[in-house]
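Troubleshooting entry. Yesterday's outputs looked truncated, so today I'm pasting the complete records for two proteins to confirm everything comes through intact. If either block looks cut off, that's the bug. Protein one:
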Amino acid sequence: MIESTRRAELEAQGWTACFVADEPRLSEAIELYESLGLEVRLEPPRPVSGECTTCLEHGFDRCRMIYTRPPANANLSIIRTTYGETKECLPSDRRKC
């Protein structure tokens, strides 16, 4: 839903797109990500050319795309779980991963 050039620009700066949310989930997600030590950035969703815009006509303009990234001074470790997934963990949170 967010225009691909803007998303690529943010990803080049280290941001990871998470999901689109409205209140109250938006505030909950921000609080959660910040409690994990991540930086949080909010961007308004922008329709891609040719994409349906019905949601925008019904209050979707209150929603935001949530992006996160580790702080600039973070030293991340990549951990593989027993399910084959990968997780990025801050060294201080390694036991929780």
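Protein two, checking that the full record survives here as well:
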Amino acid sequence: MKEKQSTAREAVLDQIKNYAVRMNLLNPDPEIDESDTLEQLGFDSLEVCQMIMDTEDEFEIEIPDNDWTTVGKVLDVVTPIVERQWEDEKRKSS
């Protein structure tokens, strides 16, 4: 499982960046703005689906289908799911 960053939002953003770099869509250490569309970053529809599935695997979560248009939209939907997962893990380990 991914090491916890200071916030779930940062962790999800890092996941998006890392996926884009692995797929050679972006150069290492890219600057990504939440208003960037996934298309602007080089994602096609298949890559968006794969990125979402990789994110589910990385955080051990299920992400509902959505209209993934911008980085911010992904962050808005996925961050609360990751936060709940982290809280559940925290309660279980206490």
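Both blocks look complete. Sanity check on protein two: Residues 10 and 44 are 23 Å apart (CA to CA).
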